[in-house]
Amino acid sequence: MTSDAPRPLWTGRVLAVVGIVLMAFSLRSAVASLSPLYDHIAEDFAVPAAVAGLIGTVPPLCFAVFGLLASGLERRFGLERTTIAALLLATAGLVARALAADAVGLLLGSALVFAGVGVGNVLLPALVKKHFPDRIGLMTTVYSTMMAVSTFTPPLIAVPVADAAGWRTSLGLWAVFALAGMVPWLLLSIRSRAAAADVDIEAVDTRVFGRMWRLPTPWALAVTFFVSSTIAYTCFAWLPTILVDTAGVSPQAAGVLLSLFALIGLPASLVVPSLVARRGVVMPLFAIASGAGVIGVAGLLLIPSTVTWLWVALLGTAPLLFPIVLTLVGLRTRRHDATVALSSFVQSLGYGATMLMPFGIGLLHDATDSWTGALVILGAVALLALPAGLVIARRRAVEQEWEARHGRW
User: Fold this and answer.
1) pTM exceeds 0.85
2) Alpha helices of 243-307 — where are they, by DSSP H?
3) At what angle do helices 216-242 and 385-392 cross, to 10 degrees?
């Protein structure tokens, strides 16, 4: 953890602020801009359901694999240079996707996008830790809010842009933001090419990532990330169908309720990082997220057609664990290299486990012809946050944990 005294946000850090904002916007808009355009793309070439399904399920896999690689890449090339590479990869994928001649090209372009995003996801908390150790809560609020906004924006404008200028323009538009996001980090990388940057890279301990496996806080954060991601990805995949089948709502109403589920994350991203960073509120937020998730599941199980919107809103409260994890990754480390290692560990394990859940829940429904088992699983997953929260609530950096258990860091 850090005790850095706050200093003016903009003093000497304008490039870092702009870079973090643009990067956060690019990471989510790159992912959310494709699915609304399948009908338009189908006018030029067929997109088989299998390919569309693969594009929809590959992100957690790419996030896990490339998130795992991010720590080693940062150690080898430095934080800013790895950030540039991640944004360059995402930009190349966005352009390739816009120029795709067939479904395979669309898939390969998307894979490039998700690879860049997987690395970028890990680096964002480390960028905040390095450039804003005195304002982790504020900057986490800024970038998590930007990520929430950029999740909503593409679906709103993708189709109108495609209607006016074609689907290729609509897809390629988002490459502009990823390309612009590289500029601040290029300038910072040039500025830091002096000895200070070289010393910082050389000082990184190659054993840092390996130590995460032997400490309780990284595992507790990984479990928390798994809980948040599982509920979010499963609901985005299956909640409309669950609501149509169990609550008897129309498909249109189910879509609106899914938007409500997603919208709940916006106020959480505005409030939660400050509560965690400034006031040290951790366990109460875990209790709220877990309890709301369990109650929402119970409502959908027992009285799904009564105040359905309330059960959906409560279920949408559980992913407030996401900004908690993003904030604590910075607060539970002393140095930015430990932040990279912790972020890589948490996100790669969390996404790696998450990628199995939507698929598994779909198989369970097919086997039982019921959503009861799936909802019970979601309720059980929500409960996992409570023991994880008890571990995380202890205000100890991972370096302190290591020193208490194994001696010098």
Assistant:
1) no
2) 251-263, 265-279, 283-302
3) 150
Over residues 16-67, the pLDDT tens digits come to 999 999 999 988 887 778 877 877 888 888 888 677 767 767 778 888 888 8
Count of all residues that appear for the chain in the document: 409
User: What distance in Å separates the CA atoms of residue 253 and residue 243, rounded to the nearest whole number?
Assistant: 9
Hey, what domains does the chain have and what are their CATH numbers?
14-203 (1.20.1250.20), 210-406 (1.20.1250.20)
**What phi-psi label fits residue 166: left (phi over 0), alpha (psi between -120 and 50 degrees) or beta?**
left
Q: Give residue-wise pLDDT tens across range 280-303.
A: 889 999 999 999 999 999 999 999
Q: How far apart are CA 163 and CA 362, in angstroms?
A: 33
Given a contact cutoff of 8 angstroms between Cβ atoms, the answer to whether 120 and 104 are in contact is no
